[in-house]
Amino acid sequence: MKATVKNGVGVFSPQGFLDGNNSPNLLSVEDIEATIKLNANMILVSLKKVVFFNRNGLDAFVKMFAKVKSKSRATVGFCDYDDKKFHAIVRFYKDELHFCLFQTQEIASLFASSYKNKDADKKILLFSTDKSQSAAMAIELHDNGHNPIIAQTEEEFKIKAKTPDAYDIVIQNTYLGQMGQKVATRVTGNAIIYTVLSFLDAGIGETFDISYHNNSLNVGFRLFIFDAYKVLAMNVHALNFFSKLSSSAAEYNATICFVGLTFEKTPISFKETLEDSGIMFFDKMDDILKNKELLDELGASSVSNIKSKHVLNKVIVSELPNFIDATVSTIEMMTNSKAVKETAKVANISVSDKNDKIASSIGFYGDIDGMIILVFPTEIAKKACELLIGEETDDSDMILDTLAELVNIVGGKVKSLLFEEKINVNITLPRTYQDVDSLLEVIQNKKGVQVDLAFDNDKFIFFLTR
Amino acid sequence: MITKNKIDDFIRKVPPSPRILKVTLAFLNNGELVKAAQIAKEDLALSAYLKDLVNKPIYGFRTQVSEISQIFGILGVAKSQQAVYNYMVTLLSPDKWKLFKLNKSSFHNLQADLTANWQKILAFLEINDKEIENAITLLPASVIVSEALFSEKIDDVNLLRSVNQIDLNSILKRQCGVDLFDICEQIATKWEMDEKVGLIIQASSGVKPAKDETINNLGKWMHLLLFYVLSKPNYVDAGLNDFIDFQIDYAQDVYDDFSRVLEIGN
Q: Do residues A72 and A36 touch, judged by C-beta distance below 8 A?
């Protein structure tokens, strides 16, 4: 059984009956290894479609949690259960509850670092009979930009929960075990923001995802911001870590910044050392993100790879048929329509009519690096995503989310087609753009191969660049 | 991925029930077990199937049963009919399974597991209706249909399911407007099975409740039974556990009785 991954959260969805006989068969050693390699921020097992389980049935998943936590430091736990199932799990593992329990996937997402700042500012009512749990949840939710309100008693909770439209989300039957300790990462425009907390010491080397950082450098990100508002202090081990990080970033002409770091408990000499290694300091995030000139100067107005100045190279061009095949076969698979190539040219991306179009991109890195971009008229995107959406919708967020899934499938196909030719690449998380302008901001004047494609006479654009 | 033409092609290739089976079923229907056995013996594959089936541990016979007349005699009219229908379903199964890790023997086991447990359920519900007993035999056809339609698309299915929790039934429904259970119903019609069989099978999908309360209730039991059986380790290994979506809410209200009948959690 494999996890479905979306927005950095991997979800296993076993079905039916879980007992000691069958649950080890649901998770093979390869499945566990694959889960660790997902490098997700959160790994959940949904019990939504499980009608019966016993402790032996859950044990295989709990063992998987332990392995994932020790290797990747992701937050792990069960979700999507009712009252009866919640109390059964608590009873089974009362002294060994080292994982989390989230009543629903939606509630889990509030605690996932990858969701940070997305749909934030929710008014959340929460209750737990364990006061330390309510406090821990409130702190996490507050950190993630929400407004938690703790009900002190069950009675108060029931009354408040019944108030119509008073809360965006109501949380109960939720338990925070050991939360993930990964450095939270998010992408804003072309800057990557890492959130660091409390005391920075040698542990930063383990909690910071260096491979993600290196891959981001490889695919052309040039501005990395450490959100350090909640850092209390830093020791010399962390100082060395950040100095080295800055030196390696300099090779790519990338910049590392700290925002909100205070030096009350950290020697001021550390700041000088870090500045000498090229790190910049700002008081507020907006000092950077809302200053377009500064962003341009720091290189965050475009994603480009300074190490390799060629727009496209021979290897990528020779693999172009694979990229197009992956796109065409995915669209054909999703729509049951024949997709045809109309024109192809090497140029800056050209979108004749920007109105009512959305786009999605996915990067790949490894033996070759680059980025695939798909631009669709919104209606056509809906058609291409019909299989995944399954219902008529005009919900633009849902359409964009589904388009991200579609481009993820394209990325997966590219990966396997290239692998057949012994070219190893990994793919990044997909990105979506609600309009053409926000796409153009990202790929500013970058040349690439543009292929105009059509299915059922509906046109869309494939663009491959570095 | 899957087109309506491919589905139509599959249904067109479903053979009508062979003459020997038709006659055997007709004799069984009239309670003429000896005549039914005489005819059934003419089909060597059917004979071999029946012998293999009744000697499976789930039937619990202590000694080897080898004579067809003996088999029909032991099974009785309704179970003999079930066995013949189960055989007809195996005629649709592929020589080599690709999508699911099954083979002839494990597919027969699946049929036997479903059939034997369905008998327990019907005994609990005090239902004594040959057609309803036969309905279970069509359920494994949904597995065969999935194999036939999706076996060449394994990579596409896996890729799709790596980003979206979508089951094979939903893929078919969304792409072609018909689902696995519609196709099973069409097979039932082609084989001239009772109308009730198709209705129960449709309800057992968990996504199409029947208007008739009795049929709907049987659909819930069958849906639960399917997932109870598909949760067994060998079927989990075969990749059958998630080929369709388990609709827990649909079947929830019969779960307590179900767990009593099948002694779950004891």
A: yes
